[in-house]
Each structure stands twice: as structure tokens, then as C-alpha cells.
Design brief:
The protein is of the alpha/beta class and 288 residues long. It folds into 2 domains: 77 residues, Arc Repressor Mutant, subunit A; 143 residues, Rossmann fold (3-Layer(aba) Sandwich). The longest helix has 23 residues. The chain is globular and about 55 Å long.
């Protein structure tokens, strides 16, 4: 490979933040299988940190050798060097609150099953919010609020586990007197409803892996009609990212196979209140 063909250069990322920025920046040109590993690594960094080559490859649905090729494509000598970077991220992320919850779960029978479940979901929610808080670009938040606040109608697009987020956003916007349309009709008229969107409107689309095909389709339709699109998703490789100029990465931690919506809800409600404040304008008091 020549210097012009090398998508990364000789310098491997020195931190998880640098790695995420490198992959999200679009400068790395990866073949399909390596892109699949990149998407898994950004969505499941704890699995990369704690798993073995075999277990990670199985969960990412690739061959173990693909993990090695992925590491080398990013400038690392091998997978163990890449994994060290993910383990350092995990060490830096652990909080006293996490330690306390882990300690509670580790006790021998002095807590009920329900208490252990509650501790686990609290820990997952805390990690989700903490992770998003650390990487959120507030200038991006300001832009998203402005785009949505200046829309005549806000279209809310989500399916499956993302739908509760848009449902609550619709409720909150309605209470604030902000016109919105929740896409999720029981009579199957969503495509027709989305067709009414114009460049004077805007949309909020939410989807996490495995991405809902209808959400991706409606987001593409909205974008084709010229309406600005704000996206909440879990990876720079999400099919929604290509459709939205504004997007937020939210990676929800899981407990026993169930992912919380804590970080997604926190982000969504920030947008809702920000929209209301932007529409109210500077210097106006609540209730004016």
C-alpha cells in the first residue's frame, strides 16, 4: 500500500477518544468486514476491553483474524495493543458509584434478587449517562435545538425500543404548545404523513442497532424533501448518520441483555426544553 492509499497513517490512536474521532471522522476507508468490527467496537467498547479474541469475534460475527486486520489497519501492531486502549478507557470510566454497585452485587446472598436487578439497572443507566455526558458536543446541541425550534412542524421518527423516546418527546412538545407529528400510525399511513414534510419543517429520527428499516427509510424521505434532520443513534456507521447533518452518538449500557434508555431520554428532554427556551426568546420569563 502506498502512502497515498494508507487511510490512517503510521500513527496509531493513543486513546479511545482519538480512536472514536478517527473512525467517526470518515477519513478511514475500511472494507465491509473491518467496518463491521469498527461499528461493533464503538457500540460495545466494554466487550472489546473484557473479551477474548474468540468471544469478541463471535459477538461481532467476524473471523478472529478480522480483529487482527482491523487493529493493523488502525496502526496497531496487533489486537492486544488495540485492546489495551479499550481497557484504559474502562479503567478511567469507573466511578465510586460503580464500585459500590458492583460490591453490592458481589456479596454472598445478603441482597434479594430484586435488589440485585435494581442495582444492575441503576449501574447501567449511570454508565450510559456518564459516557454520553463526557463526549457530547454542546455546540452540536445548540445547532440541533436551533434547527428544531425554527421548524414549523417537528416530525418524530422511531420504531421498536426507540419509540418510547419519540413518544415522550411528542407528549412534552405538545404540553409546551409546539406542533409535532409522531410517526407511528396503527393504520399504516406513516409514509403519507411523512410526505407532507417541507423544508420549513424538521425531523428527529432515532434508531439503534439493529436499525429499524422503516426509520431509515422515513429519514431518507424527509431528507430528500429538504427538511433538516437531527439524528440520535449509536454509531458513526449507523445508516442514519449519512442522512442527517446533525447527529448524536448515544451508547446505552446493558444489564442482562436489556439496554436502558436513560441517556437517550436525558438527551431528548434537553432538546425539548432547549426548543421551548429558544422559541420563547431571550429575556422572557416563564409564563409570559
Amino acid at each position: 500500500m502506498t502512502a497515498e492509499e494508507d487511510p490512517v497513517g503510521p500513527q496509531a490512536p493513543e486513546s479511545f477518544a482519538e480512536l472514536r474521532e478517527l473512525l467517526a471522522g470518515g477519513t478511514v476507508k475500511l472494507p465491509k468486514r473491518l467496518k463491521q468490527v469498527a461499528s461493533f467496537a464503538l457500540a460495545q467498547p466494554d466487550e472489546i476491553a473484557l473479551g477474548t479474541v474468540t468471544s469478541i469475534a463471535e459477538k461481532a460475527e467476524v473471523q478472529p483474524s478480522t480483529l487482527i486486520r482491523f487493529s493493523q489497519a488502525l496502526g496497531f501492531a496487533g489486537f492486544s495493543d488495540l485492546q489495551t486502549l479499550f481497557r484504559e478507557r474502562l479503567r478511567n470510566q469507573v466511578s465510586n458509584y460503580d464500585d459500590r454497585l458492583l460490591s453490592l452485587r458481589g456479596r454472598n446472598g445478603d441482597a434479594s434478587r430484586s435488589a440485585a436487578l435494581f442495582d444492575g439497572f441503576c449501574e447501567a443507566s449511570t454508565r450510559s449517562i456518564s459516557g454520553m455526558h463526557d463526549r457530547l458536543d454542546m455546540s452540536q446541541m445548540d445547532r440541533a435545538i436551533r434547527v428544531l425550534a425554527e421548524a414549523e412542524t417537528i416530525y418524530l421518527i422511531a420504531q421498536r425500543r426507540s419509540f418510547p423516546v419519540t413518544a415522550y418527546v411528542s407528549y412534552a412538545l405538545g404540553k409546551l404548545g409546539i406542533r409535532n407529528v409522531l410517526i407511528g400510525s396503527a393504520v399504516g399511513t406513516d409514509a403519507e404523513t411523512v410526505s407532507f414534510a417541507t423544508p420549513r419543517d424538521a425531523a428527529l429520527a432515532i434508531s439503534f442497532t439493529p436499525y429499524a428499516s422503516t426509520t431509515v427509510s422515513f429519514a431518507r424521505q424527509i431528507a430528500d424533501q429538504g427538511a433538516p434532520l437531527v439524528v440520535i443513534t449509536d454509531s458513526p456507521f449507523s445508516p442514519l448518520v449519512a442522512e442527517g447533518r446533525l447527529w448524536f452518538e448515544v451508547v446505552e449500557a446493558d444489564f442482562q441483555g436489556f439496554r436502558s434508555l436513560a441517556a437517550s431520554m436525558a438527551l431528548a428532554m434537553t432538546l425539548v426544553v432547549g426548543i421551548a427556551e429558544h422559541r420563547r426568546g431571550p429575556g422572557r420569563e416563564q409564563g409570559d
